[in-house]
């Protein structure tokens, strides 16, 4: 395949950055999108240029490291597919492809296509855990969980924390990510002791980190590679309201 | 999932299944507290050798991460911290280690060769796949022991690491990893060469029964091999940890 890439190049956080064009020839349609970028980097290194920095790790669609806004869509055109699982056969020969980093105030660009997503870690730190006595095995049958709750919690737990929801949101809100964590932990009996402190702590951190407010646009759930449903945001709002109204807000 | 990766619909085209390198079996040596031979350095999850050896079963990553984190570490790390004086380390070895890392970074950046880090990573992977894969022979392993040092020497003269040391530099990061992979690859080949039996996922072509099945040699190899680093360019030292089976004993695999 012959491709024209327009890639966001930015030397560092202070650099203003620009889209730079590259021509690629002889790309296999069976290559993944990241393998195509590997080929581009090999070429750039051979030409004595600086290769494009981009995040990746497992390349199996489960770690949440890969990102990239491809032709204006986070993780590219395929529904429920991370960038690493996107293949070049989904593009046309001769196509012009725009590749940009996640763009959001809370995700500053580090270099080229790499953004700093540590704000997500700080949100998790402010409440995304449960207290559990470790060291001994709990008796599994002592804590019954209704099947519908287990299913909904599992669906929410599929969130890999990649940040595509934030990149897709016109407000730069992380409500879908937050809602997924609140739903995942809040539906399980093990998540009850910290339930109210958790939602207040995580949402306050979310706002402090510079993520925007949610206006139920719904772009996030469309962009989400794991298909986290929009109603997790309803649960987030419900729990936050209840925690605030009940005087449980710190 | 299959269709997304291969572009073939498994309802119409038969699925093509073949073995692939998934993970390195084995890992760093630890004691029952999951502490390595470096005091205070705990190695947890898949990075240690404790739960997977010649075989690595599916989901062992998850199992080991959970078991180590839930059952073992809450008891052992706390115990270590309680018994140890955790004063800041003021030792010449810290400065030495930092200097060593700095000089390696400078060395990477100054080579300015004509081959990318990835090209060395791929070639090393190819050597391992060819000569230290599921089926290996003494001849092939000895060949790998010639090829790896030769490729390593080439790496240190021809690798091209772009960029600088004072920025996010993924090429530099990868170069450090590939340099480590040479060490690990050589050790894996040395270990494979010394174990002349077929065992678990490792099939030594010289050790098979009349049906072509893997032939074990428990009389000589019923131990986990822990290799001690003896310094750069030195032959690692073998420590044998005996595997003792009280009730269920390993036997020849048979599908008959």
Output the keywords.
heterodimer; A: 250 residues; alpha+beta; 5-stranded mixed sheet; two-stranded antiparallel sheet; 8 helices; 11% strand; elongated; B: 256 residues; mainly alpha; two-stranded parallel sheet; 7 helices; 6 strands; globular; 4Fe4S_Fe-S-bd (chain A); iron (chain A); iron-sulfur (chain A)
Short structural summary:
Chain A is an alpha+beta fold and 250 residues long.
Give your account of this protein's structure.
The complex is a heterodimer of chains A (about 250) and B (about 260). With about 250 residues, chain A is an alpha+beta fold. Chain A has helices at about 35-45, 120-125, 145-155, 165-170, 175-185, 195-210, 220-225, 230-245, and strands at about 5-10, 20-25, 70, 75, 95-100, 110, 115. A five-stranded mixed β-sheet of chain A has the order 2-1-5-3-4. In chain A, helix 5 packs antiparallel against helix 6, helix 5 (about 175-185) crosses helix 8 (about 230-245) and helix 6 packs across helix 8 (about 230-245). The longest helix of chain A is centred in the C-terminal third of the chain and has 15 residues, at about 230-245. Chain B has about 260 residues and is mainly α. Chain B has seven helices and six strands, in the order H-H-H-E-H-E-H-E-H-E-H-E-E. In chain B, the strands form three sheets. In chain B, strands 1-3 form a two-stranded parallel ribbon. The mean pLDDT of chain B is about 90.
Helix percent of chain B reads 40-55%
Structural class of chain A, please?
Answer: alpha+beta
Largest sheet of chain A: 5 strands, mixed
SSE arrangement of chain A, N to C? EEHEEEEEHHHHHHH
Radius of gyration of chain B: 22 Å
Gyration radius over CA of chain A? 20 Å
Beta-strand portion of chain A reads: 5-15%
What does the largest sheet of chain B look like? 2 strands, parallel
State the assembly state of the protein chains.
Answer: heterodimer
Alpha carbon gap, first and last residue of chain A: 57 Å
Residue windows where pLDDT falls under 50 for at least 5 positions of chain B: none
Tell me the number of strands of chain B.
Answer: 6
Structural shape of chain A: elongated
- Which sequence of strands runs across the widest sheet of chain A? 2-1-5-3-4
List the total number of helices of chain B: 7
Structural class of chain B: mainly alpha
H/E series of chain B, N to C?
HHHEHEHEHEHEE
SS field, number of helical segments of chain A:
8
The proportion of residues forming helix of chain A, as a percent range, comes to 25-40%
Mean pLDDT of chain B: 91
- List the chains of the largest interface with their residue counts: A-B, 26 and 19 residues
